[in-house]
Amino acid sequence: MLDIGYSLSPRFPDPPQTDYAAADVRTLRHDLFCGDVHLADTEEDTELSTAWGWVPVLDFAWALSDIVEELDRDPRGSRAPGPYEAEFDFTESADRMRFTRRFGTVEITADWTARTAPPLVLSHSVLRREARDFLHDLVADLTDMHEGLDHNPSVLGLLARRPRV
After folding, report:
1. What is the CB neighbour count within 10 angstroms for residue 19?
2. 72 in Cβ contact with 128 (< 8 Å)
3. For the segment 99-144, what is each residue's pLDDT rounded down to a tens digit?
4. Distance of alpha carbon 3 from alpha carbon 137, whole angstroms
5. In angstroms, rounded to a whole number, what is the distance separating the alpha carbons of residues 51 and 73?
6. Backbone phi and psi for residue 160, each to the nearest 5 degrees, phi listed first
7. What one-character-per-residue DSSP string does the chain give?
8. Domain total in the chain
9. Domain range for residue 116?
10. Would the N or C end of the chain have less CB density within 10 A of its end CB?
11. Distance, CA of 4 to CA of 82 (rounded, Å)
């Protein structure tokens, strides 16, 4: 089972004058909602997590849902041998999280972990489901904390393009 989670950092609060309903995509993805993220395989007891406090968590959720779709670009789906690769670049560092799909399995590794650390290995369908659930749950949490975010056209479009599975 995959657990994707986040925590917001008190060190990088959002500007109090932010109009969340009118915030543009760049602001939503890179300037707001900073904290940390984690991906954990609860059955294998393996985890990839950040501990920097500055990761834009909405950008991570947004990019993760895009990465899952990018890994599924072959019309043969889980029968496609691959490998298909994608990565998430953390904007304020040289670290990356890498995703490699072969057939229906995805391996996730991170630059900041020891080379001997085992990768997260999970089914692509589980990653898709959990990434979309994480995106929707995160937006719901952020909407509860930030008035107007639920009326932002970019957020509404994102949720419409990536419905829960």
Report:
1. 11
2. yes
3. 999 999 999 999 999 888 889 999 999 999 999 999 999 999 999 9
4. 12
5. 32
6. -70, -35
7. -EEEEEEE-TTSPPPTT--TTT--HHIIIIISSEEEEEEEETTTTEEEE--SS-EEHHHHHHHHHHHHHHTT-STTGGG----EEEEEE-TTSS-EEEEEEETTEEEEEETTS-TTSPPEEEEHHHHHHHHHHHHHHHHHHHHHHSTTGGG-HHHHHHHHHS---
8. 1
9. 2-161
10. N
11. 25
Q: What is the pLDDT of residues 53-107, one digit of tens each?
A: 999 999 999 999 999 999 998 877 778 888 999 999 987 788 999 999 999 999 9
Tokens of 77: 């789906």
Q: Which of 3, 33, 12, 7 is nearest to 134 (CA)?
A: 3
Q: Which residue has the tokens 């890498």?
A: 98
Tokens for 25?
């995509």
Ordered DSSP codes for 12-32:
SPPPTT--TTT--HHIIIIIS
